[in-house]
Design goal:
about 90 residues, mainly alpha, 3 helices, ACP-like_sf
Length: about 90
Amino acid sequence: MADPGTYVDEIRRIISFALEIPPERLADTTPFDDLGMTSRQRIQLLSRVEVAYGVSVDIDELDRLVDIRGVAEVISEAVAAQRPGG
């Protein structure tokens, strides 16, 4: 599995753009709830990162998308699962 840190900067950029928040305000562990992110916005985030990384993530993983680090971990696992033998 790739290091989830590999995805953090791009995920931060995606969230910053979507929420119109400066990227420097987004720490890896800042809870999305603290940023005012709704469940609908989390679903949209999931869709964006799926497209950005060419992966499919089960909607059951939505509960793990609570901060940038959580999104990075989910994406890292999805990328690893798509690799041969993954």
